[in-house]
Specification:
GO terms for molecular function: iron-sulfur cluster binding; metal ion binding. Keywords: Iron, Iron-sulfur, Metal-binding. By secondary structure, the chain is α/β, with parallel strands linked by helices. The protein contains 10 helices and 9 strands. It has helices at 15-26, 73-77, 99-103, 141-159, 174-180, 194-209, 225-237, 251-258, 269-290, 297-301; strands at residues 2-8, 30-33, 48-63, 109-124, 127-134, 163-170, 185-190, 214-219, 241-246. Strand 4 and strand 5 form a beta hairpin. It is elongated and about 75 Å long.
């Protein structure tokens, strides 16, 4: 089984639309939405939820006012200001550090595990999907990412499906680290801007650190063709495989509104570009499976430059 993780240095680059399109082009896959803070793959894959499970992680303090003698030590030691003058714990401020329970001489502080969100197993037209929703202001998103990836791998193995497509979170923080560890290939989706180039550089550095083979494509390339070309050249310089340019197309917005994959709209220019990127990804993953070297820099440089 191979896992492809699609990431970017920021939100809104088109990761989710690309993952849904790849799923339609690939046929039978397992989908995983690892962007648990703002999951939206379900918006374009029409899932039917089959299972729902609580995500329990971390702790939260609760003061038993019958046992509490109002000595004030808990308020004194709580560096997050989570305990008010009436000795009630504000859940949104409590970080679950446990210092209040540690210093309480009356053992009036209970320290419970808390439910931080939910995760689902769903069926889609392209195969099963594991996705989740983290609660408002909750932490431990890295743990939830690890959980949904683990369950997605379990599904792929139990159903003997060879490909796992993961819609990763944006940025380079803990959720992204949790989403690319032990992945087979990473696709970084960049936008043709100066900040988009910097975002791509950070994502590629992260993939290199974890020794995950990386590829790059530029979405909405015709909005700034010169910058798109610079991103392609920088990707090659950093050892990534450049897979192509994807033009801007209003059909992307329409597909999001309709809740459908881009492939459903026929042979549009954006779909043809995505097909080329997908074929490049398949070749890259096949080469990795065979132990062969990745496509040459010359073959990547030969791709057509974006047009204004």
């Amino acid at each position: 089984m191979k896992e492809l993780v699609v990431i970017s240095g920021k939100g809104g680059t088109g990761k989710t639309s690309l993952v849904a399109a790849f799923a339609a082009l690939a046929g039978k896959v397992v989908l995983c939405d690892a962007d648990v803070d703002a999951a939206d793959l379900h918006l374009v894959t029409r899932p039917r939820i089959m299972e729902t499970h609580d995500f329990v992680s971390g702790h939260e303090a609760e003061i038993d006012l019958e046992r509490c003698t109002r000595c004030g030590l808990c308020r004194q030691w709580c560096r997050f200001g989570a305990i008010d003058e009436a000795f009630r714990v504000e859940p949104l401020l409590c970080e679950g550090c446990g210092v209040c329970a540690h210093v309480c001489p009356d053992r009036a502080v209970d320290f419970f595990e808390k439910t931080c969100g939910v995760w689902h197993i769903s069926e889609t037209p392209y195969g099963p999907m594991v996705h989740a929703r983290l609660g408002i202001a909750e932490e431990n998103s890295g743990k939830l990412v690890a959980l949904v990836r683990r369950e997605a791998r379990r599904l792929a193995e139990s159903r003997r499906i060879d490909l796992l497509l993961t819609d990763g979170p944006p940025g380079v923080g803990c959720p992204v680290i949790a989403s690319i560890g032990n992945a087979d290939t990473v696709l970084a989706v960049a936008e043709p801007t100066v900040s988009g180039r910097h975002d791509m550089e950070r994502v590629l550095a992260l993939a290199e650190h974890f020794r995950v083979p990386a590829a790059v494509c530029v979405n909405k390339c015709d909005l700034h063709p010169d910058e798109a070309q610079r991103i392609a050249e920088e990707a090659l310089t950093r050892g990534a495989v450049f897979l192509g340019f994807i033009p801007f197309d209003p059909v992307v917005t329409r597909s999001q509104v309709d809740g459908r994959s881009l492939v459903d709209y026929g042979e549009t220019p954006v779909v043809r570009s995505i097909q080329e990127v997908w074929e490049g990804l398949r070749a890259l993953m096949a080469a990795s499976a065979d132990g062969a070297s990745k496509p040459s820099r010359e073959s990547s440089e030969a791709r057509e430059k974006p047009q204004a």
